[in-house]
């Protein structure tokens, strides 16, 4: 049983980490202007599956992202097969199947992005789906590591506060996609922009960002007052991620959007989403922990 658990844990973590890394490699494609480094899909050129020397470094960067995308699909397949073979439970199997299905869909959307020459709406959809995949992979990893959820112990107001925070986090990500779609990093010099004013959108993006910070602080205060301890730990982790994300956002907007900071901002967005999932799920203790604590008084009565 221990070996089964270890293989599932490794596969789940590989799923989550690979989904985060693909955001970084995809960001590198966009930020280096390599979005059309491969002009075709699945081939890199009409005549070649791999880049040709004429495409230069842009072809290498875009093709490398495609290769990593294939690895992500393989990892998702392995995760689903292991979940089924190890009888991991309906929740884990369902999450693994959804992650695999959306990962394949993400590859197909990547093809559409190329075919439509990096239209900002298709690029934005590509990123939003990445955020969803990271969040689902985080939930999958949580369930594999901690097991089934126990009964809800937090009061309704605390749960409502956490869910309000995650809703605002989703708004921040969505507005961030619109802001990026208005800015200079289109993935290719000739790619269209969404027509929004980037200077205005930076402010529009900041407003829900500060609302998110306030809600995360409220979640931390509530967790410190009530617990559970694991919930407090993940809430503090999210607070740290949001503070770093805000700092990076302010610095990048004042320094002309350097590609390194923009890339960090993109990766931090999906990491924040993953931690947000952990904050929500940590409101419930694992069922095994609840069962053990319920069994202790029973033994005490028998011994007495």
Automatic annotation (TrEMBL):
Domain of life, per lineage = Bacteria
The record's annotation in InterPro entries points to: COX15/CtaA_fam (IPR003780), COX15/CtaA_HemeA_synthase (IPR050450)
Biological or metabolic pathway of the protein? Porphyrin-containing compound metabolism
Name the residues that span the membrane.
67-85, 92-118, 124-145, 157-178, 207-225, 232-251, 257-283
Q: Which UniProt keywords apply?
A: Cell membrane, Disulfide bond, Heme biosynthesis, Iron, Membrane, Metal-binding, Oxidoreductase, Transmembrane, Transmembrane helix
User: What membrane topology is given?
Assistant: Multi-pass membrane protein
Q: Does the keyword Transit peptide apply?
A: no
Indicate where this protein is primarily found.
membrane
Q: Give a yes or no for keyword NADP in this entry.
A: no
| Subcellular localization(s) per the UniProt record | Membrane
* Name used for this protein in its record: COX15/CtaA family protein
């Amino acid at each position: 049983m221990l070996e089964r658990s270890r293989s599932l844990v490794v596969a789940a973590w590989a799923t989550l980490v690979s989904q985060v890394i693909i955001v970084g490699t995809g960001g590198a494609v966009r930020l280096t202007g390599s979005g059309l480094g491969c002009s075709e899909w699945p081939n890199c050129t009409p005549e070649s599956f791999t880049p040709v020397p004429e495409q230069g470094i842009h072809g290498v960067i875009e093709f490398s992202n495609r290769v990593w995308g294939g690895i992500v699909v393989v990892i998702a397949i392995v995760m689903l097969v292991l979940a089924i073979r190890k009888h991991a439970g309906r929740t884990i199997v369902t999450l693994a199947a959804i992650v695999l299905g959306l990962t394949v869909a993400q590859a197909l959307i990547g093809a559409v992005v190329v075919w439509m020459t990096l239209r900002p709406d298709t690029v934005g959809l590509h990123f939003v789906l990445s955020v969803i995949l990271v969040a689902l992979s985080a939930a999958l990893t949580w369930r594999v590591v901690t097991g089934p959820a126990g009964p809800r112990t937090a009061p309704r107001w605390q749960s409502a506060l956490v869910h309000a925070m995650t809703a605002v986090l989703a708004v921040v990500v969505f507005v961030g996609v619109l802001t990026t779609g208005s800015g200079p990093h289109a993935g290719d010099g000739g790619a269209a922009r969404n027509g929004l004013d980037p200077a205005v959108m930076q402010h529009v993006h900041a407003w829900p960002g500060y609302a998110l910070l306030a809600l995360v602080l409220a979640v931390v205060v509530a967790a410190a007052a009530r617990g559970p301890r694991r919930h407090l730990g993940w809430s503090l982790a999210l607070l740290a991620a949001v503070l770093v994300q805000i700092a990076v956002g302010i610095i990048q907007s004042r320094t002309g959007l350097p590609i390194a900071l923009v890339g960090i901002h993109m990766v931090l967005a999906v990491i924040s989403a993953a931690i947000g999932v952990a904050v929500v799920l940590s409101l419930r203790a694992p069922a095994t922990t609840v069962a053990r604590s319920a069994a202790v008084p029973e033994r005490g009565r028998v011994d007495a």
